[in-house]
Design a protein that fits this description.
By secondary structure, the protein is an alpha+beta fold. It has five helices and six strands, in the order αββαβααβββα. The chain has one domain. The strands form three sheets. It has a two-stranded parallel ribbon with strand order 1-2. A hairpin with a 5-residue loop joins strand 5 and strand 6. The longest helix is centred in the first third of the chain and has 15 residues. It is elongated, with a radius of gyration of 16 Å.
Length: 128
C-alpha cells in the first residue's frame, strides 16, 4: 500500500501534466491485513478479475503449492481476495495519447518498483 500512497501523493503532478493515472488490480476485497478505516483511492482503479488481463500480457504468475501454504499460514486467501492463486508483476506503463508505450517498468521482484517521481519525469518529457 505504500506505493499507492506515493502514487496518490504524486497524482497532482501527474494530472497537472495532462495525464491520467489508472491502477489495475485483481483485488476484489480487502485482506485481513488492511485497516478497515483505510481511505479510498483518489484515482481510477480497474479490476482485473483473476489476473486475466495481466496473464494475457505475460505479467502474472501462478503461485506454487508451497507458497500458497505460506500465504494461507498468514491467513491470506488470494483466491478469495483476487479471484485466483496468481499474482501480477508490479508494472508501470506510460502510454502517450496515440497509444504508444513511452516507458515500461516491469519486474517480477515485487520489492523493486519505480519511484512515482520517475514516472513524472517521463511525463514531463512528453509534455514538451
Amino acid at each position: 500500500m505504500a506505493e499507492l500512497d506515493a502514487l496518490q501523493q504524486t497524482l497532482p503532478d501527474i494530472t497537472g501534466l495532462g495525464a491520467t493515472l489508472v491502477v489495475i488490480s485483481p483485488q476484489v476485497q480487502r485482506t485481513q491485513r488492511e485497516p478497515e478505516d483505510q481511505k479510498p483511492l483518489g484515482l481510477e482503479h480497474l479490476r482485473d478479475q483473476g489476473n486475466e488481463v495481466a496473464r494475457r500480457y505475460g505479467l502474472s504468475f501462478d503461485l506454487p503449492d508451497d507458497l500458497i501454504g505460506v500465504y494461507r499460514g498468514f491467513g491470506l486467501d488470494l483466491a478469495k481476495a483476487n479471484g485466483s492463486w496468481t499474482l501480477p508483476m508490479p508494472a508501470r506503463f506510460v502510454i502517450d495519447r496515440s497509444g504508444v508505450i513511452r516507458s515500461a517498468d516491469v519486474d517480477p521482484d515485487y520489492t523493486r518498483r519505480t519511484e512515482p517521481a520517475e514516472t513524472v519525469k517521463v511525463l514531463r518529457t512528453l509534455a514538451r
